[in-house]
Amino acid sequence: MKRKQLFLLIAAIVAPQAYAEDVINLAPVVVTATKNEQNSFDLPVAIDVVDKEDIQNGQLQMLLSESLIRVPGITAQNRNNQAQDPQISSRGFGSRSAFGVRGIRVYVDGIPLTMPDGQGQPGIVDLSAIKSIEVMRGPFSALYGNSSGGVIQMLSEDAPETLEVGGTVMFGSDDTKRQVLNAAGTSENIEYLLNVSNFETDSYRDHGAGKKEAATAKFKINISEATKLTALVNWFDQKAQDPLGLTRAVAFSEPTSAGVGAVASNTRVYRSHTQAGFNLSHAFSENNAINLMTYVGTRENEQYLSLPSSPPVNANGRASEISRDFWGTDLRWDNNGNLLNRPYNFSAGLNYGKSKDARRDINAVNGIKRPTNIPNNTNYGLNRDEDNISTNFDQYIQGKLSVLDNVDIHAGARHTKVKLEVNDNFITGTSAIGDNSGSVEYQKTTPVIGVVWKVTPIFNLYANYGRGFETPTFIEAAYNSTAVGATPNLSLKPSESRNYELGAKAFIGDNTQANLNLFRITTEDELIISASNAGRNVYSNAGKTKRTGAEFSIDTKFDNNISTYFSYSLLNAKFDSDFTSTAGPVDSGNKIPGTYKTQVYGEIAWKYAPLGFSTAFEGRHNSKVYVNDQNEDTAPSYTIFNLRAGFEQNLGNWRLSEYLRVENMFDKEYIGTVRVGDVNKRFFEPAADRNYLLGLSANYKF
């Protein structure tokens, strides 16, 4: 092991040898695993919580990747590209996503940010309004429905009892700027929170500038002691350039450059998103309660892509437009009591969701769509005009029975029905290629079961098993070939998986908590890219894949306000059968692209209360990663180190803070993310060199 990586093991080696002033007494309380509040230590699932301090202190608070890098089993990569969401995967699920997040369900306060087809956009949430993030991996994720390789749930801030107002300004490298204004408080029976922010950057890479405005509003109305109504509104508006990917040679010789065609085609994205969700809970008694959640929203997305000027698109670019309307609801009954003198709890519910995308695809020349004064022709032709409609209707049950004083059984099942429907409007005119309307329906019941044995009050063992189900998204079902006349690929099968997990959770003394789990996942009909040309990706079902691995974390509080945290992820994700795509044969044993065999995160933090000072030294290591199914090339492994430090002062009703973050402090040159299966071999997205962030905030409590 390289010398500079040794520090990453310090937390694991020395933690049990220390005695702390700040003790760890309890694991975090979570809601994601069981839909009811429960101590995570007593659950037979791998679930971690990122708290407010790690989300906001010394962070830009723009991307989930900032917070999730510390969670074992999760790959969260900043693409250094404001036009794309971060790459997030859980145990390899979602690793090949080209747009947004797939393979993982994403929520904010129980309201889904993932559409019925499994495509998610977590970027709508302003992290400066979030108090914690719960991350669940493993079999129990399937209880959230289709595309549940994992679940990420963000929980927004609670309102204080009295009015507080505040503001934050941030400045950083590459002319990065961010401003945040917030107000929160309680008036009679109404708790409220308002948060608005603005972000701008010129980007580390050429043609990568971006601007984003966001707002969050949350209201909680305490109608009575038994009845609560919460309303949450999220909005954002974004403009960003897309620097595209680079070949290996260019990525390491000119890492700040834009990809071929980015400037000529003016690749970029415009997005706006508004979503409102409502949650009504009512307790009939101490044993029975209902919860009704409903949400509605709209999304506009216009993305300009760079293409070679060749059939089927005879232009050097393309504009892809999506206008989305979506809504959904979830009704759940919660019950608890005693069965044969043993305590139990039980939940049953119904879930429905619908998303309708009006999708248009238009040739663009030099980044310009068809001008109004130029007739429709080959260069400015319309390629696609259709409605993509996805719906789901699910029924689920989940419960826990304490069969012994120290043994709990958790079990559940979810029946999911997903329908993808294409209504083709592009059936007239000289460029039309016939009616490509059609639909497909997928159904699956996914059972899960887990048991936790509380060996002692400070040591638990658990095991679980479950089935998984992942349907194609509309992005994957878009084309059945790259040729002219391609139709929607509605013959794709869903991938199905079997998940096994063993784990242990322990408190070591009164200052250390450690978690360890081992898992094995086998999947059939894995969705892979089988062909790519002129900006069109065609997906097909591969044979079998296998994922085995381990996840470990240890958190310790030392004397003198020193703390350490360490996490380690091992993932062996590979194809388990031979198959052939248009790019060539894929052998059994090849690694699934976009997955890292090892990931390590560690930090040492210190606080000095008399001066209100805090600091932390972070380290991160990722192994090499393959870029396509044939395993023809890799992005090399890397290790980087970061430093954060800050002061906080309380002056009367004022709370002031100043902080500095230095990222990649030793100026390591490395590849932050890869574009899986890029036909032009432009797989690589370089990460930023040494960069800094300076933040100043003030908060006034009335």
Could you give a short description of this structure?
The chain is 3% helix and 57% strand. It is mainly beta.
Record the SSE blueprint.
Layout: H1 10-14, E1 29-30, E2 38-39, E3 46-51, H2 52-56, H3 65-68, E4 74-77, E5 87-90, E6 101-102, E7 105-108, E8 111-112, E9 119-120, E10 130-137, E11 150-156, E12 164-172, E13 176-187, E14 190-201, E15 210-222, E16 227-241, H4 248-253, E17 268-283, E18 288-306, E19 317-339, E20 342-364, E21 382-404, E22 407-424, E23 438-456, E24 459-470, E25 495-508, E26 512-524, E27 527-533, E28 536-541, E29 544-557, E30 562-575, E31 579-581, E32 584-586, E33 598-608, E34 613-622, E35 625-626, E36 634-635, E37 638-651, E38 654-663, E39 671-674, E40 684-686, E41 691-701
Parallel strand pairs: 7-11
Antiparallel strand pairs: 1-2, 3-10, 4-5, 6-9, 7-8, 10-11, 12-13, 12-41, 13-14, 14-15, 15-16, 16-17, 17-18, 18-19, 19-20, 20-21, 21-22, 22-23, 23-24, 24-25, 25-26, 26-29, 27-28, 29-30, 30-33, 31-32, 33-34, 34-37, 35-36, 37-38, 38-41, 39-40
